[in-house]
Amino acid sequence: MKKIDGHLHLVRNIAGLNGKGRLNALGDGKAIWDDGTVIQLIPEDSGDDSFTAEAAMQLMDKADVEKAVLLQGSLNGYQNYYSYQMIKKYPERFIGAFSVDPFADKAMAIVRRHVEELGFRAIKFEISQGGGLHGYHGNEPFRLDTDARVGQIFHYLADYPGFTVAVDYGSYEQVSYQPEAIVNLAARYPMIDFVVCHLSFPSEKHLNRLKAALDAFQSKRNIYVDLSAIQDIQADTTFPYPKCQQMVALAKEVLGAKRLIWGTDSPWSATFNSYENLANWLVASGLFDGEELADILYNNADKVYFKQTAVEAAAQANDPALN
Q: Which alpha helices (H) appear in the chain, and where do they start and end?
């Protein structure tokens, strides 16, 4: 069965930044935060201090994954330009989103460059307190639906119907958790598609909380959720992940299969569970029939992210680095 990994990260240079400080490569796929925390960032045999497009495609090919959506995150550090280069090099395999820190003085110039010159048609906001913007802008909490800096970005994106906005807002314990902001934005910008990453950071012990968020999303047809990294969130390592099945069954009940997007959040997630298992667990779960699986594993991501089959050809003419 065809698959699109709807949530994948490439890592050309480890440049992570969050509340633990900067992330530095150690080799053997490991990295260390400034506070001394060591993590295994890259799965074995997939890179020493990088996770390249070629390494990703090796994992994808073994798991019959045809294409992938390249997202950005503070864990790895924004890999905007490398993602752009790989979309240009492998247009049949990748599409992607860029990220920007809205607190940056040149934030709007960065947005315009990526949209107008490089041709991106998706943006990722990783605002989580645990791993994103709220972790290093914690003295100034902000909401996506009311902050003037973020609002300026959305006003601009409204001129690009069909644009996609992916959001990771972390778990309910974090000040960054704001599912209601996604609902407000989806109503305000019906021409934009919104993807809530990681199934709104669910907990098997708090399914009512997840249902409340999904019920709110259900009213807006331009809101989707991706299913990436929920194994990590639940510390669920027994294939085919019974804890995760409970939450995905609820998502199916509330949103339906046409608004769920499979993804892995590799490379980091592939250090907890094999990429092959992450690629096959939904089939093994028995939760979905063949048509539903086709939507979740391929069609929905194709519809939401691959509106532009590749970064526009005009971008190359505007980019001296590729000429």
A: 53-62, 80-89, 107-112, 133-136, 148-157, 179-188, 207-218, 230-234, 242-255, 275-285, 290-294, 300-305, 313-318
Distance CA 229, CA 198 (A): 6
Domain edges within the chain: 4-308
Could you give the dihedral angle defined by the CA atoms of residues 19, 24, 26 and 30, in that order, rounded to the nearest 10 degrees?
A: 40
- Asked if residue 322 has pLDDT above 70, the reply is no
Let me know: does 97 contact 166? Beta carbons within 8 Å.
Answer: yes
Q: How far is CA 169 from CA 126, 132, 199, 250, 254, in A?
A: 6, 8, 11, 20, 20
Q: What percent of the chain has pLDDT over 70?
A: 95
Work out the average pLDDT over 88-102.
98
In the prediction, which pLDDT does 308 show?
A: 63
CB 130 within 8 A of CB 18: yes
Say which residue the tokens 């960065």 belong to: 110
Q: Is the pLDDT of residue 287 over 80?
A: yes
CB proximity list for 254: less than 8 A, separation 6 or greater: 211, 214, 215, 217, 218
The reply to whether CATH 3.40.50.620 applies to domain 4-308 is no
What phi and psi values does residue 204 have, to the nearest 5 degrees?
Answer: -65, -20
Any residues with CB less than 8 A from the CB of 24 and at least 6 apart, and which? 14, 31, 32, 33, 34
Residue-level pLDDT at 319: 57
Is pTM beyond 0.90? Reply is yes
